[in-house]
Amino acid sequence: MYADVIVDISSGQLDKTYQYSIPERLASQAVVGAPVHIPFGKSWRKGYIVGLSEEAKIEVSRIRSIAAVEKEGKVIASQMIELAAFIRENFGATMNDALHTVLPVKRAVRPVEKKSIRLIADDTVLDDAISAASKRGYAAKERLLCELKEKKVLSWNTATKELNVSAATVRTLEKGKILEVITETGYRDPMAGLLKLSKGELAVEPHVLNEEQKAIRDRVVSDWSHGDYKTYLIHGVTGSGKTEVYLSIIEEVVRAGRQVIMLIPEIALTYQTVLRFYRRFGSRVSILNSKMSQGERYDQSLRAERGEIDIMIGPRSALFTPFQNLGLLILDEEHEASYKSEMPPKYHAREVAIARAGLCNASVLLGSATPSVIAYNKAAEGEYVLFELNRRAVTGAKLPKVSVVDLRQELAFGNRSIFSGELSEKIRQRLAAKEQIMLFLNRRGYAGFVSCRSCGHVMKCPHCDISMTEHEGGLLVCHYCGERQKKPETCPSCGSKYIAAFGTGTQKIEELVRRSFPSARVLRMDADTTRKKESYEEILSAFSRKEADILVGTQMIVKGHDFPEVTLVGILAADLSLNAADYCAAERTFELLAQAAGRAGRGGKEGEVVIQTYQPEHYAIKTAAEQNYKGFFAREIVYRKALGYPPIIHVMALLILSAKDSAADSAAALLAAAAERFFSDNELLDVVMVGPVPAALSKANDLFRKMVYFKHGNYNVLVALKNFLEGYILYSEQFRNVNVQFDFNPMGGY
Ligand code: ADP
Ligand code: ZN
Ligand code: ZN
Fold first, then answer.
1. CA-closest residue to ligand 1 atom 10
2. Which of 214, 235, 238, 244, when mutated, tests ligand 1's pocket best, judged by the most ligand atoms within 8 Å of its CB?
3. Which secondary structure element, helix H or strand E, spans residue 285, and what is its range?
4. Mean per-residue pLDDT for 531-547?
5. Closest-lying ligand to the alpha carbon of 468?
6. Which of 84, 410, 677, 702 has most Cβ atoms within 10 angstroms of its Cβ?
7. Residue 90's closest CA among 742, 727, 749?
8. How far is the CA of 204 from the centre of ligand 1 (A)?
9. Mean pLDDT throughout 63-73?
10. What is the distance in A from the centroid of ligand 1 to the CA of 394?
11. Rounded distance, CA 170 to CA 159, Å?
12. Residue 253 scores a pLDDT above 90
């Protein structure tokens, strides 16, 4: 037996492994993740086993053996390597990709430096220097010296920017022993930027939990302190106090000296949320987000490993925070599609969190107002412990009144505007009452595509099989790859000048709102207005300070924000997402509508929701209007059963990518044929194969995309098929210029 050993896990060269043989006496201890001592060149090193194999990759005589396997307690690196192996096995990827996913990699990161300048010369020397500089007309030097005389210490920025003194001048004075330059290094503090916005509203007493909340806290804490580590799902309506429950459980876990990872979708990682944790736990909390640089993120994982923090809040990748004694993992908004990685390994954070909890004896807490069908089904079957929170926590805050407007009837009555009569009327009432309104459009720039009214030609991205969207200033943008073009004056296909944007994007709606309600102050939030690092926070806090009456936006505005003054939510076209061609379409639609509706009436005032739709009879829309998750689940699970979709049947999707259409086609055909052979060799005649077919998005970023789908009731059968196909791809010449990606139980269409 041989082991692949990685020697330096922080180097970033994780694919650089060395093969060692495993002596008989160590056979049982030499598992993936085990820390080992190995002879390396002329010295000894510590490494980790990342893979095992029967075959030698080099001449057997040149392979050295592992000297010892470390036994004392499981170190964090071992756990992470085991976790990488779990991800590799269950979601499909190379071990290298899996290691890169789980290990915080240092990449020549320099810590932040804070430079300042301090006066060291005494007064007489300084005065001499000042008069000398003055005589010779060295104005900058004179400015700096005079300022130093008064202040004694200056920041580097003040000296070089405000006083406009060159670095060379500072250096001359340093050499002349007039001043010294002090350099302090420190961690980049990601909280600093966020907390600037809070303006000192710290330290408030936690709420006294209500009966329902307390029951959950007591059960979880009691299991936990008895060493009974489980997975729990809190199904609690929006505003029912789930976060308050998390906080109270975290408190107990931290008090016992263990650490907590709290995953929340990046979009909900706002200063409101972070502030709530900061108030409770102070600087023992840190955050991760995708806008932080690699260096900033590395700093935070280092702080976690050294025990300088207890709680890490962040999106999916925060899952891999290297806490030494992790006790609890929380996934808030468990249904969020962003918990599934879009890049290989296409793992789901829920499953990986549960796997990590298993490695370090921790509990897992899932929470959502609209749990994923997969998670709720597991809870219903007893695999997770299910809790329900059915009321809003704030006294007097009730679930909003919802009305559904049939847009077909509006049209029949001659109303062609995007606002139904009922919605316009209600907007007017709220504006008069000085209350706030949110208007939600199901998708950014949806139907903002540009087409020719004479011949029907649609402007598509040259790299992707996707229509481009019109933005301000006649710019066409591909939302898939970012390609930008000027909108042509005439149709490139027939020359007609009737080429125009169709339908309604958020920009267009903002314009229409301003036109229909000229007195209203309007803010818009979508991917375009939030591209800058801080703008997302700026829009949200401006709205919560009541600097606007109406917030228009996409998905972004419906997720997890708490605006007590919002009393009306308008959903402009509820069914846009119903028409997506994948099995999750109804689930996504229900979730968006229920979450959007949940934004209304979160303070003391009663809230109202207007859902505009072309399909008022669809069960996803009906149950969302009733805020009836169980009703939705009951209908949806029947549909999944009938059509054979997760969670009843598992799906493994194969995405085959190549720059050459024909290469992608033949690779897909080879994989399908190989799979057929695997089925007959293993008597697996009940695996369903669909395809190969071109993906719905048949080309993106200049790569052609083909799909093959496999369906089976047993996940492990699909894993076995994946392992077989991975081996086949590795040893077959035909896959040189083809990239094959696996996706288990995909959460969207391809
Ligand atoms: P969720 O996470 O389920 O949306 P939150 O925990 O954010 O709910 O609570 C919603 C609102 O109710 C917040 O303003 C919170 O401060 C308040 N709240 C939560 N629990 C209580 C409680 N026990 N008593 C009073 N107010 C509460
Ligand atoms: Zn045309
Ligand atoms: Zn494109």
1. 239
2. 244
3. strand 285-287
4. 77
5. 3
6. 84
7. 742
8. 14
9. 82
10. 6
11. 9
12. yes
Note whether 77 and 84 are within 8 A (CB).
Answer: no
| pLDDT 10s digits, 114-146 | 788 888 888 889 999 999 998 988 988 999 999
Interval between CA 478 and ligand 2 midpoint (Å): 20
Pocket flag, ligand 1, residue 601 (CB < 6 Å): no
The rounded percent of the chain whose pLDDT value lies above 70 is: 90
* Residues 564 and 422 both lie in one domain: yes
708 lines ligand 1 (CB under 6 A): no
End-to-end CA distance of the chain: 41
Work out how many domains the chain is built from and give that number: 6
- Nearest ligand 1 atom, CA 208: 23
How far apart CA 630 and CA 162 sit, in angstroms, is 62
Q: Is residue 193 part of a domain?
A: no
The owner of tokens 């109202």 is 608
CA distance 488 to 504: 20
- Ligand 3 centre distance from Cα of residue 482 (Å): 6
Q: Which residue's alpha carbon is nearest to atom 9 within ligand 1?
A: 241
Q: Considering 454, 473, 504, which residue would you say is the last residue of a domain?
A: 504
> With 80 as the cut, is the pLDDT of residue 186 above it?
no
Neighbour tally for 715: CB within 10 Å = 14
For residue 560, the ligand 1 atom closest to its alpha carbon is 4
Index of the ligand 1 atom closest to the CA of residue 598: 4
Domain membership of residue 463 as a residue range: 446-504
Q: Residue 87's pLDDT band (boundaries 50, 70, 90)?
A: very high
3-state secondary structure (DSSP) of residue 657: strand
Instruction: With beta carbons less than 8 A apart as the criterion, state whether 631 and 624 touch.
Output: no
Q: What number of other Cβ atoms are within 10 A of residue 113's Cβ? A: 10
Instruction: Give the separation between CA 50 and CA 623, rounded to whole angstroms.
Output: 48
Whether ligand 1 lies within 6 angstroms of the CB of 240 is answered as yes
Query: For residue 254, what are the contacts with CB-CB under 8 A and spacing of at least 6?
Result: 260, 281, 284, 310, 311
On whether residue 664 sits in a domain, the answer given is: yes
pLDDT band, residue 744 (cuts 50/70/90): very high
Question: For the domain that residue 217 is a member of, what is the CATH number?
Answer: 3.40.50.300
Global pTM value: 0.80
Distance (angstroms) between ligand 2 centre and the Cα of 454 equals 5
Of the ligands numbered here, which is closest to the C-alpha atom of 450? 2
Q: Is the residue at 191 inside a domain?
A: no
Q: Which ligand is nearest to the CA of 247?
A: 1
For residue 235, give the amino acid letter.
H
Q: Say if residues 91 and 131 touch (Cβ distance below 8 Å).
A: no
DSSP state of 65: B
How confident is the model at residue 556, as a pLDDT?
A: 75
- State the average pLDDT over residues 374-394: 93
**Per-residue pLDDT at 445:** 38
Distance CA 508, CA 510 (A): 5
For 552: left if phi > 0, alpha if psi spans -120 to 50, otherwise beta; the answer is: beta
The answer to whether residue 396 is domain-embedded is no
304 and 274, same structural domain? yes
* Cα(275) to centroid(ligand 1), Å: 14
Distant-in-sequence, close-in-space partners of 533: CB < 8 Å, separation ≥ 6: 291
User: For the chain, what is the largest distance between any 2 Cα atoms, rounded to a whole number of angstroms?
Assistant: 97
Burial class of residue 296 (count of CB atoms within 10 Å of its CB; 0-12, 13-18, 19+): middle
pLDDT above 90 for 334? yes
What is the pLDDT of the chain when averaged over all its residues?
A: 85
Q: Which residue has the tokens 């944007």?
A: 501
